[in-house]
Amino acid sequence: MGIISRLVTRAQEYSMDDFFRDTRHRSLGGQYAGVEVSEGAALRLITVYSCVRVLAETIGTLPMDVYRKRNGGGKDEARDHPVHALLHDTPNDEMVSSTWRETTVSEQALAGNSYSIITHNQRGYPIELYPIPWYMVNPQRNPETKKIEYAINDRGKAEIYPAEMIFHTRGFGSNGLVGYSPIRMAASTVGVGLATQQFTERFYTQGMNVGGLLEHPNSLSDEAYKRLTAWLDEKGSGIANSWKPLILEEGMTYSRIPIPLADAQFIETKKFNRDELCGLFRVPPHMIANLEKSSFNNIEQMSTEFVMYSLMPYITRLEQTANWRLFTPTERAQGYYVRCNVKGLLRGDYISRQQGLQIQRQNGVINADTWRELEDMNPTGEESGKKYLVNGNMIPADLAASKTAENVLKGGEGTT
User: Fold this and answer.
1) H or E element in which residue 255 lies
2) Would you state the pLDDT for residue 10?
3) Which of 92, 198, 310, 410 has the fewest CB atoms within 10 Å, i.e. the most exposed one?
4) Residue 96 to residues 60, 72, 117, 305, 327: CA-CA distances in angstroms?
């Protein structure tokens, strides 16, 4: 039996009970480092929240437009196309474009997948994009048609949608059907972060830190025990009660256990976990207010790399999914496409970029129209834009040698 046959066989055996069980498991998560780890729980970890927020909000602020390619080169903004209004303004009647993109990117960053239902009008144009929580959707292959379809759990009832009606952006994965959940792939690291956070919270909530011993030479009387426990319950914990003196009776002594934070290298553990999580989301530490290893010399370079290596995978998936699901094959053949403009994020390196293009222009490598195309501008529309220029002081070496010989001969003739 081949791989595809086994997949189809397993799909036939997959029931709605299996789907509901998997949905509950995906939403509740598992336990790592003694704490429950799930996509929702991970957001309570400040590093995860900060990284996801940076990715989602940055892409949410980018201009996202529909263009149409010109036959002779260049492009024009297609504001009259219905998809432009969806992606640039309002994808549905409850949110604006930036909110929809933030939702899409945040779910992809956390769970590896994001889903939106596409509603079409009678003419077949998409008129609405509405996001659906990732844990409510189960991509599957239809056992009869062999095509991918989506089972969406809506209030206990599963509805099947064809792939054409689902805007599905997948993260990194191995089967092409769904993306891996970064939180699940790094569950142990996230679990350590959550456990560390819980320990910190409990340490400061208790305030007095019952990390000590109460020693009595014999046995404590019932009356003294009741007074002691009542005092500890009422005033012996909480940050507001820190450093209040403890009155001991009947020769009892108190010995404090050293604070475990330094002994367990607690601060170093938190720093290491923070750096690991930044690596998981490929977010430079300085973008979540960690300037420990940053300087004015490297922040600009790291910001440029953030656009190239962190944002571009999300942007590319968003653009390609939009071109695939929101345009018909005929429209794609006519040159319609979606583009997110990231030039504003690269302005910090604008001077260096222009200097490099200027050197190419002066050396005859590019012409004016090529320069304008690289800067996302239309051609000049004139013949001068197609011409190549060279620096007048630079000529081939063989020509320079012949010119030198010619000048020598002319000089000699002039002196005779």
Assistant:
1) strand 253-256
2) 44
3) 410
4) 10, 35, 16, 28, 21
Q: Which residues contact 87 (CB under 8 A, 6 or more apart)?
A: 64, 65, 66, 97, 322, 326, 338
Q: Where are the beta strands (DSSP E) in 142-250?
A: 148-154, 157-162, 166-170, 212-215
Query: How many whole angstroms separate alpha carbon 384 and alpha carbon 1?
Result: 64
Sort 138 into a burial class: Cβ within 10 Å, 0-12 / 13-18 / 19+.
Answer: buried
Find the angle CA(99)-CA(104)-CA(106) to the nearest 5 degrees.
95
SS (H, E, C) 109-162: HHHCEEEEEEEECCCCCEEEEEEECHHHEEEEECCCCCCEEEEEEECCEEEEEE
Q: How far apart are CA 392 and CA 407, in angstroms?
A: 19
pLDDT averaged over 10-residue windows placed end to end, the chain, 416 residues: 41 47 51 76 92 96 93 88 94 95 96 95 92 93 91 85 95 88 91 84 61 67 79 62 61 63 65 90 88 69 86 96 95 95 70 82 87 84 85 68 69 52
- Go through 84-102 and write b for each residue having 16 or more CB atoms within 10 A of its CB, e for each that does not: bebbbebbbeebebebbbb
288/81 Cα distance (integer angstroms): 38
Query: Where do we find the tokens 């910190």?
Result: 200
Structure tokens at 411: 């000089």
What is the pTM (predicted TM-score) of this model?
A: 0.70
Both structure tokens of 82: 């219905």
The single-letter code of the amino acid at 415 is T
Q: How many CB atoms lie within 10 A of CB 45?
A: 22
244 phi/psi in degrees, rounded to 5? -75, 140
CA 276 to chain centre: 15
Cα separation of the two ends of the chain: 98
| Residue 257 Rama label (left phi>0; alpha psi -120 to 50; beta) | beta
Reported residue count of the chain is 416
